[in-house]
From TrEMBL, chains A, B, C, D, E, F:
Highest taxon of the lineage: Bacteria
Keywords: Isomerase
UniProt name for this protein: Allantoin racemase
One Pfam family it belongs to: Asp_Glu_race
């Protein structure tokens, strides 16, 4: 089984970290293919970048290998999943949803911990339209400055821990990590916290395997039917291959 | 990996059918163990029987093999999952939840089709407390008499098909089967319907494998902490083994 | 009029305290009959015990006196009420609902105060499926250790008072006591608090009298129709009388 | 115990019919006092008349007898209950709420049947702010012309029956009558329908007795504290007595 | 275009302040006519006064000039708007709604700041029935004593600022002022706060102009159809002019 | 005042029709500037095209004239508004929101009528994240084939009328047109229907004027703060001007 893990930004090291995380939990026989857009922000924080990544990811999806069995969209809280469900015939698993699905089976309510406060509203919107906000006790952020997050892994981990304690205080009994590519974060938090911690890419990888294993894919009945054939001048952005 | 598929009623043929369904989708290396309560109704329709099965299933859970890795609770819409999450340390997947989780990734809204109209309210309650009713367009029933369902497989299939069309009409783009042990029903409906059809036991089996594969289990932090040690005269009902 | 007050646990002193509370508010001519299950936990905290008590209470309900006019289910937040509504033809009043019903007529929003934090989720579920969570500002717990609650009445009262102040702070203008059998607690809290305090067994007793007085009982139309006649090996648990 | 049944309109025959209904279910020792506003519409249908009756009822409440123990506000879906809760120290039971409270204990979901379609939105608003819409499957109306309702009792009954069947079809298992003063309507519908039928004035009378019996009254803590002393030129409308 | 700004209380200086605020933002050619009821409270805080003002405002609305194009109802959180929509054929804009409408376009969630804590529930009800509570992060109050608010403008401003900071802390990114007639408050808060501040009368004035400009007015289809012709003894309260 | 009306697709005739509609209701002194993306679909139906238009519109927004006072985003149900709110400092009005805002002031509940059934889910998502779905009775579609809609204006009008009747039947008392660029559609429907009909571009134009007139713009406090400065290889798509 071939699963594409599609990073939403253009930073190759993050793409590789995501693919590596997926590989670490994939079943024997599952091949993980890391991919990233050909253009767009090198990281996504906020709606503006999120909408850019949505189009960039859809653009890149016109270049998927032929034998892909499922796609994991690896941008926590980012837009685009419904468009991918229209475009593709293989199942599409969004990491934002994946963490929540597993969390709901492990605790009465779950919480999300992310890096920047400005992303809270966007994650809330994404869980809302996925019909998964109901069991979410809180979404909170480490709230470090961006530079600190990028440069000081230790400070980031500690800030994530503090935010996790806040969402537990607000009723969460499971933590979903709302970020990607921080190696070892799940392990660190699991050691420090009294609750399970879910890495969203790990979750999405297993859910993608599950759907493929059951022969299930996106409903093409109405909402996610294939896009109409029409003129789209200038699209795709990337040259066809 | 050893997964117990726990039927909620005392009909051995249904237990076997459920285990067989689980086996048909299990990964290589996954051993499916069919189990059923030692007492209680031979089928469950309605809250009264549902509460009986909850206690009977919890009673039976005191007799699980030592090396179980996860439990699938195979009573659609039936009570008890939160009690099992307290009692056990391995992950517990309820088929009611499992179908909904996968469905939400395949269509904008899903619908549930069950056999008897009186079960609709109970399924709605179960999805509500699981925080999964939000994406449910409709729950509907074949609404045959009980005898017809038990004796006339063909009539039941057709009635399920009619009910499925009704929930599609009401907005569902994916169908979750709210019953168990009807061999071949998913295949029949998939052929007749323009939308994906999810067998809940299949879904639960893959989700159980996913949780075990990720090393995740129930949060024991607060709500699902182990039951207190106390006097429970007359309990367990079944003699200890 | 004969009203059974059904304790959900097997502790006779609590059954008697509950019946006594009900008697203290019953109308002239109302006879209160305290009953308790023949088996099960001596107190119920958490879902596991709650599901045990549901079955144990339903088991005991097969032994109701013939001339009962209504049943009060006296386990705050415990399961089973819908099963009782199927089984019986007389009206069934759950204390969890009863307190909320009266509270909604007395203040803009109400709060629930219970003894143990682990029960909060379960009470929330019970109010949710009863369609009564909407007006609930908060559910909070005294959060003493179990031993303290059982052995130190004074500490428990004070902890309940502190929790009550917290739910008032969160918007409650009426307090519903989410526990039973603590003699004098309502009076103590009413003296200390600026808001009305509702004892749920008192509330349920008057609501049961009201339904009987109006000739109203459970709808047997669909959801709460009598349980089907079928085989239930090993049931009832208690020998028939 | 003295309970005022306050009609919201100025039609004496309706006031008497309402008081008579209340008396028919009152406990021995309960005295029912029918009252009505000194001014305002002779019937209330729609928000405009509803707001008039709210002020007219509050105006009339300045003239309550000294020894009143509770007030039933007998205008289904009409405004004013929260104002009465501020003004008075005795408990206030609104018939709109009362029917819903009892209905929620008798069936999984209830429905409301009223006379005119234009009142549906207003009843929905009233149940919404009372936090009781959650369990309401449908509100529907007989939808006769006003003249027909006033002049042709038989046609009205039949139209109410048709509307009741519609709300049952939409999921109601209990019917709350959203009108007052139609003698014999509950009995007629109960005979024709497979579900319990609740007369709201009957319900409110028993709930008022319940609150008084338990020594409970409106929370004066914040929202329903007594109105501030201030200048209100031209108020009360009615000359003081 | 002629717009009536209808104060809900009988204090002429507030009526003038409101009209003046409206005039300060009105388009060239828009004439603002300040009006107030002929009777009723000189300020409205709480449901009792709110219901009085609803009737008093409706009473006054029978005396509108013939050439009015729209009415702004200038009582934040006060009742009556739906009655006015029945009574009048010109569009009616309630200031409670108006602030929320604009706020929702400026930030992810908004908050309301009002003067007295007892009004919070009432504002919440008003936004709920207007279907606008969904985007409201918090409603909070300055919580000064009434005397302080009336006599000490500076203390009031500071208390409003503190309350605004609390609602921002709870997630609001736009502030709606839930009071009227405090000259200069919007400017003061805008200077002190990092978020936009909306004066509800200003908002309502522009929305009224917008509706008139588009030739839109209240739907008379069903709910807001004109009040029935009927007997309303004693109404209108004010002598006809 | 200069308002950009930004069409989301690349069809110049639709851009012109939208600008013309906006001009027809703009205040004296308001200059309407029609704009459209430099690339992307020539019409947008479905999530895939919607996400493309979001990025294409944001791309085009880097080329706005300097003296723009507000932007109307003229793609009903399309994505991107929150990104535009981050990118720009002037107010952004989405036509999807605009129609709903005005509709809520005109009737108890509103309905949306659009052209294609597949867009219903997407419009529902857009109203949900805008916190405006609460008052929406129904969203329905004309459900003609695409060719029919494009080629047969008369058939489209009639199909829109039929859909409008359906949403009225489901409780709508105001109709919001969920499409753009069909000249004369509002007038046609207003003549045929008993309820007000809102053209979303007209509504958005007046709301944009209102915000500018009040000196209000997007909150830059947290969620809609300006996008971070970072590397975005390949962006903007369009050559800078």
């Amino acid at each position: 089984m071939n699963i594409v893990v599609m990073n939403c930004n253009t930073t190759a090291s993050m793409t590789e970290a995501m693919a590596s995380t997926a590989r670490s939990v994939a079943a024997p026989g599952t091949v993980i293919i890391g991919m990233q857009p050909n253009w767009g922000p090198d990281s996504a924080e906020g709606y503006f970048d999120s909408y850019l990544t949505a189009a960039a990811v859809l653009d890149r999806m016109t270049q998927l290998p032929d034998d892909v069995d499922a796609v994991v969209m690896a941008g926590f809280g980012e837009h685009g999943r419904e468009g991918a469900r229209e475009l593709l015939t293989v199942p599409v698993v969004d990491v934002t949803e994946a963490g929540a699905h597993l969390a709901l089976m492990l605790g009465h309510r779950y919480g999300v911990v992310t890096t920047l406060r400005r992303a809270i509203a966007q994650i809330s919107d994404s869980l809302t339209t996925a019909n998964l906000l109901g069991g979410c006790a809180a979404i909170d952020a480490a709230d470090l400055g961006v530079l600190e997050i990028e440069e000081d892994v230790e400070a980031t981990r500690k800030a994530m821990l503090v935010a996790a304690h806040r969402v537990i205080e607000r009723g969460a009994e499971v933590i979903v990590l709302g970020c990607a590519g921080m190696v070892g974060l799940r392990e660190y938090l699991e050691e420090e916290l009294p609750v399970p911690v879910i890495d969203s890419i790990e979750a999405a990888t297993k859910l993608a395997e599950s759907l493929v294993g059951l022969g299930l894919s996106t409903s093409k009945y109405l909402t996610y039917a294939a896009p109409r054939t029409k003129k789209r001048p200038g699209w795709p952005i990337s040259p066809s291959q």
